[in-house]
Amino acid sequence: MKTETEANEGTEGLAAGEGRLLYSASAILRRAFDQALAPWGITSSQASVLAFLEEAGHPITINQLAHLLLLESPSVTTMIDRLSERGLVERKGDPKDRRRTLVQLTKEGKRLQNSVREPGQQLYDEIFDVLTDEERQILRAILRKFRDENIAWLE
User: What is the value of pTM for the model shown?
Assistant: First the structure.
């Protein structure tokens, strides 16, 4: 017997079905990571900001960060404000262009990023453990193609 979810998926039409599945998967990931990060007082979105800043390895602009996160600059500015209040990131003037502001991790931000890395990876492994290695590779390829072919919708 089909579950209610399976029954509904058959009647939604393909486009609505895939859209809803992606939305549901995204919501599951976000909620799971938000719960896992709660002891550190940050959200999954804020953790993504810290991870991208660490990955950059040098100060970057809010616009660059927004582009990496696929978000609008005002949303990223709000996250930077909150992270800055906690001493996790800092703003500094761009020596090449005084109109621009750069953002970088502080020592405390780096410490927090290091603290959440392992629990985050463990959660990621646990969530995706329902898929075989081959299924994970296929999912990655499909999602990468979907993102790359549709990125223009964000511009």
Answer: 0.80
Q: Tell me the CATH number at 83.
A: 1.10.10.10
Domain contains 49: yes
How confident is residue 98, by pLDDT bands cut at 50, 70 and 90? confident
**Domain with 49 in it:** 41-154
Query: Is residue 34 assigned to a domain?
Result: no
Question: In the chain, what are the helix, strand and coil shares in percent, each to the nearest 5?
Answer: 75, 10, 15
Please state, in angstroms and rounded to a whole number, the distance separating the CA atoms of residues 59 and 6: 47
Asked whether residue 24 is domain-assigned, the answer is: no
Dihedral sign of CA atoms 30, 89, 52, 63 in order:
positive
pLDDT digits (tens, 9 = 90+) for 122-136: 999 999 999 999 999
State how far the Cα of 53 lies from the Cα of 64, in Å rounded to an integer: 10
